[in-house]
Structure formats: C-alpha cells, structure tokens
Amino acid sequence: MNHDINIGALKKNCFRQSKVPGEFMLQMRVPGGLIDAKYLKVIEEIAQKWGNGTFHLGLRQTLNAPGIKYENIEAVNAYIQEYIKEIEIEMCNTNMESNSAGYPNIGPRNIMACIGNSHCIKANINTWELARKLEKEIFPSPYHIKLSISGCPNDCGKGHFNDFGIIGVTKPIYLKDRCIGCGRCAKVCKKAATRVLKLVNHRIEKDTCCCVGCGECVEACPASAWVRPEKKLYRVMVGGRTGKQYPRMGKMFLNWVTEDVIVAVIKNWQTFCANVLDNKPFYIHGGHLIDRAGYQKFKEIMLDGVKLNPEAMVAQRILWAETEYRSNINVKPLCDHPSPGGPYTPKSKVD
C-alpha cells in the first residue's frame, strides 16, 4: 500500500477517503439536482468498472461512486471529462476548462435545489435554472460555500441550514372582483402559514406585515382571486449550519429581492472570503466566516455594488441563536455568549 497518498489533493479533486485504505468515493456535481437522465449511464459505468458496483445519492444531490481504488482515479478523471464539459461549461457556463484532471476544486459544494415550479404546484420560482446561473459565480473556487435553493417557504432544500439559503417567495395580487367570499384562502393561511388573512363582509383583508410570501392562498382559491405576479422574488437566509459543536439555523439577510440582486450578491462571496481570510483560503463554514468578520462587515461587502429593487428589505443586524454545550460535571461553558453576529470567545473547559 502506498502511504504517500495526498488525501487533501484528492479531496479537492472531489474524491472522498474511504475507511478502506486506498479506496475513495467520487462525488459528481449535479448543480440544482436536475440533469438529463442519460447521465445516469456515466455513474453506472464508473460504479461498475472502477467502483464496487453501487452508487450513492449524496445528501447534497451529488452522484457518488464508492469503492474506487487509488490507482484507478486517473482513469476515472479522464472518463468524466466529457461530463464535466457538458454540465459545468456548456450547461452552467462556468469559467473553467475540462481536461483529464477531473474536477479542479471542491470548495463550493454542489448547489442543492428542490424541483421548483417546473413541477411543484407550491413553488414560486424555477430553482434549477437559478442554480445553474449561480454555479458559474461560485465554481470553481478555493473558497467554500454551501448553497441551497427552495421554491417556496416550505424550504424543502433546507436553506436554513446552509451558508446561503435562497427561497422563492411571492407577493400575491388580490383581485377582489373575482372573490366569491368562500374564505378558503384565510383558512389555509391560518392552518399552513402566518394567519394574515381574514374574511370581512365577504371580502378578504390582509395584514401585510407578517406575510411570508408562500402563495398558499393562490393554490387554495377556487376563483383565481389570488394570482402570483410575473415578477419573481426571493428571500435569502445566511449563516445556517449543521455540525458537532455549534449547529444553528440561519437568519434572514434579504427579503423580497429579485434574481438580479441574488446573482450580484453571490458574485461578492469570493471577495468577502478573500477579505476575511487575507487571500489564504482554507476550509471554514460560511457561518463561521460571517462570525469572524461580523455581520456589518459581511453586509457591507456582500451588498457592494448591488442595486436593490424597490421592494427589497435588508436585515440591519442579526442575532444568532446557537447551542451551548454543558456537561453534568463542574465545568465552565465552552464559550461566552456571542455578541450579535460576532464570534465566540473560547474559554477553558474545566475549572
């Protein structure tokens, strides 16, 4: 067995180390989680020819082939050259070359997305089309980012637990002349959303302060008195993460913004990372990076040069809610209570 294998370089190349010495798992990117079914033949060939005959649907919607021997990685990289060209360069228009070296970087994780309004009746946006537009803004890059897109505030893509969670929202238009006064929209809003609708004198009144833009009223109305406008709008959650030590749910950064704003903001991510890390990239969750810089600095850089649409709302500050672990013995907390948007300060663990 060759003990000089550069695990870090292979990880960057999208090969994950196995518990079996000398074996690795390829992670093939599927931006937005949607590709032509013909590409299943690619992962099938890899799994059967170089892997152990199985493939794994990665939790970030990658196509994974485990059981690849180290000595076969070069052949696998050569084989996926055409796939990378068709997916990354032709479909997503990324600024990269396709060659026999395989994937150039794993820093930006695969962009996740639910099926969106290409299928789901509840979705407000086309998720996978947006994913492909954003792919070219983040990949390839040495700076890490986990990004998820959901078609509606149900957030099936779990954007609340990503560095960036982009959620499709809508501002439904109420056409009162069509309303038949049945109250179904108010009932579904009470049951499934934020209870902002009520039936008064056979017409609907809305408290706009707490509408989350889900569009449930549109789906519920039998008379099409509620309709989605053509203008697509988005919500952006930031700083969410899983993990052993400080898991937390993301908080709202932007609301009611357009696709142009989304693209412009994500374009600034690498600039933000380079600024905070002094142009020395290494693996760090986006949420931790925001903590290190502080929310105000994050907001300043991420919105630099971004033209906000009239409806846009920006969080002026973010108060994070994190888990603090304590044991049942006499110990100090692992960390001081964090300041808003700021980093934790380590403390000694034991008196």
From TrEMBL:
* Example of a GO biological process term: sulfate assimilation
The encoding gene is: asrC
Pfam name, any one: NIR_SIR_ferr
Specify the protein name: Sulfite reductase subunit C
Q: Which organism is it from?
A: Fusobacterium hominis
Q: What UniProt keywords are attached to this protein's entry?
A: 4Fe-4S, Heme, Iron, Iron-sulfur, Metal-binding, Oxidoreductase
Read off the InterPro entries from this record: 4Fe4S_Fe-S-bd, 4Fe4S_Fe_S_CS, NiRdtase/SiRdtase_haem-b_fer, Nit/Sulf_reduc_fer-like_dom_sf, NO2/SO3_Rdtase_4Fe4S_dom, NO2/SO3_Rdtase_4Fe4S_prot, NO2/SO3_Rdtase_4Fe4S_sf, NO2/SO3_Rdtase_FeS/sirohaem_BS
Task: Kindly give the NCBIfam families that the UniProt entry links to this protein.
Answer: sulfite_red_C
Q: Name one GO cellular component term.
A: sulfite reductase complex (NADPH)
Listed GO MF terms: 4 iron, 4 sulfur cluster binding; heme binding; metal ion binding; sulfite reductase (ferredoxin) activity; sulfite reductase activity
Please state every residue range assigned to the domain named 4Fe-4S ferredoxin-type. Answer: 170-199, 202-231
